[in-house]
Design goal:
alpha+beta; 36% helix; 6 strands; 6-stranded antiparallel sheet; 155 residues
Length: 155
């Protein structure tokens, strides 16, 4: 059987190859875009988890130290206690104690305890950060990639 070469069908294979390559490229770019978004979401979730767990650890430590009687005007500087690599406890003279705690890397937390010994009232506020520890040993650095998570209790 003989096939007749039709002059009107020239270039059909090239057109078909270009269409297949374009569709394949579009699918590949779509998959790459979805993968990039998933990577960004998972890294944001990881950083958020770091901030939360840092805040939780410092919250629990502050609650324990409160139960041990640390937060009184006479005890806050004299007791030996371990809440990780913490900075000095500051007392403002009106029932408020605060300190910063450093964890591995740049993760840190700011903890504030309001303890009124004259009445049964305590408030603990712990804010955890994934990227806030600075060289001056305070939790004050700022970064566009920093996340903050906080725990708060009042009783």
């Amino acid at each position: 059987m003989m096939y007749k070469n039709d002059k009107n069908s020239k270039g059909y294979t090239l057109l078909f190859a270009v269409i297949v390559a374009s569709v394949t490229l579009a699918i590949g770019v779509s998959i790459l875009t979805i993968s990039k978004k998933e990577f960004l979401l998972s890294s944001a979730a990881r950083e958020s988890s770091i901030s939360f767990y840092v805040a939780d650890a410092c919250f629990e430590c502050a609650m324990y130290q409160n139960d041990q009687g640390l937060f009184t005007p006479t005890n806050y500087n004299s007791l030996s206690w371990d809440c990780g690599n913490h900075g000095p406890i500051t007392y403002n003279g009106t029932d408020t104690y605060s300190f910063d705690v450093h964890f591995s890397g740049l993760a840190c937390a700011k903890v504030t305890v309001v303890k009124r010994n004259s009445q049964p009232y305590t408030k603990v506020d712990s804010k955890g950060y994934n990227l806030a520890w600075d060289s001056a040993k305070f939790c004050t650095n700022t970064s566009p990639k920093m996340t903050e998570r906080a725990l708060y209790a009042e009783f």
